[in-house]
Design a protein that fits this description.
two-stranded antiparallel sheet, six-stranded mixed beta sheet, Rossmann fold, alpha/beta, 337 residues
Length: 337
């Protein structure tokens, strides 16, 4: 049995991936400070966890997964950064290192870290390199890659950096991940959505629809709402912003709608049963979009990507590191083995 620890656990995408794969596991603990995420997690997995912070935490799992807060690394945020001396949300990633250090001789065999691709930008990459170096000092061999949800069957153009650190000299080989053909987004959409809260009727939003009001060469403000074809853009906390994950063109065009909460959960790899459990915990108000369910989906990790990583770990398809330094796709990432 594999013992797991989810830090910054959200709605439990790592646990959902293990359940889907049928891997015998025990979630020895789950750490999440957001009360709504904790309630959703408990609803999905019939647990009774309470909200708690990673600060001061100790425990001994086999696999540690931390999808630490990304807001201050994100290109759409304020770029406050995540230096370990800062007090930003993204600086909480260093608490994971502290937790591992405090475990002493016993450490988790695998540590998985997920974050936005903004962490690889030139003004943020020093944090990423420092994380790799410190993990190496703790006895881990690091591998990383930018993974796209579309490569794992999910029609969402979501890209995230995944770092897999293995205790010892074995290196995780991302080329061993089993990818899947992308399914068409129509498989994820609800049929005949007519509720008024999902219809785009506000003139300021209608004017941002690309095909309805194309960008002109003289436009200085070029943010637009993209009409979804076969896949959507990244699911975020809110779909009524511009830009967002994309909008749906109704058959009786020119009428357009937002993605529903259920569709966003599906596009993150969760089942309708999961969504119903969360909906019971956070009922929608009549005629209103459910901001909580949108936010919980947007802050999660795509389950199907985690499934591919866990499956490769289960099969232990690792390679011996063949060089002292590897450079990432952008040629600027120092990767210390």
């Amino acid at each position: 049995m594999i013992k797991t620890l989810e830090l910054f656990g959200g709605i439990g995408a790592p646990r959902k991936a293990l359940v889907n794969l049928g891997i015998d596991h025990k979630a020895i603990d789950y750490v999440e400070i957001n009360e709504q995420a904790v309630r959703a997690y408990n609803a999905l997995y019939d647990n009774r966890y309470k909200q708690q912070t990673v600060v001061g935490y100790t425990l001994q799992p086999d696999i540690l997964v931390h999808g630490s807060p990304c807001q201050d690394f994100s290109r759409s945020g304020k770029r406050l950064g995540g230096n370990d001396e800062d007090k930003t949300r993204s600086s909480l990633m260093w608490e994971t290192l502290r937790i591992i250090e405090n475990m002493g001789k016993w450490k988790p065999k695998y540590v998985i870290w997920e974050n936005v691709t903004g962490v690889l930008d030139k003004d943020m990459i020093h944090n990423f390199n420092k994380y790799l170096t410190r993990m190496n000092d703790l006895g881990y061999t690091n591998s990383f890659d930018v993974l796209k949800a579309t490569d794992f069957g999910i029609p969402q153009k979501r890209e995230r950096v995944f770092t897999v650190s293995i205790l010892g000299d074995k290196a995780f080989d991302f080329t061993k991940l089993v990818k899947k053909p992308m399914r068409h987004i129509r498989e994820f959409l609800e049929s005949d959505v007519t509720a008024s809260q999902y219809m785009i009727t506000v003139p300021s939003m209608l004017n941002k629809i690309e095909e309805f009001n194309p960008v002109k060469e003289t436009d200085t403000y070029k943010r637009r709402l993209d009409v979804i074809d076969d896949s959507c853009w990244t699911i975020t906390e809110r779909q009524d912003r511009c830009p967002n994950a994309g909008i749906i063109r109704k058959k009786d065009a020119p009428q357009y709608r937002y993605l529903t909460e259920r569709e966003c959960w599906r596009l993150m790899g969760f089942s309708d049963g999961d969504f119903e459990a969360a909906l019971q915990a956070f009922p929608s108000k009549k005629g209103k979009r459910n901001a909580t369910l949108y936010r919980l989906a947007g802050n999660s990790i795509v389950v199907d990507v985690l499934e591919a990583i866990f499956k490769a770990l289960q099969e232990e398809e690792f390679a011996e590191p063949s060089q002292d330094m590897v450079f990432g796709k952008r040629g600027q990432l120092q990767f210390i083995c």
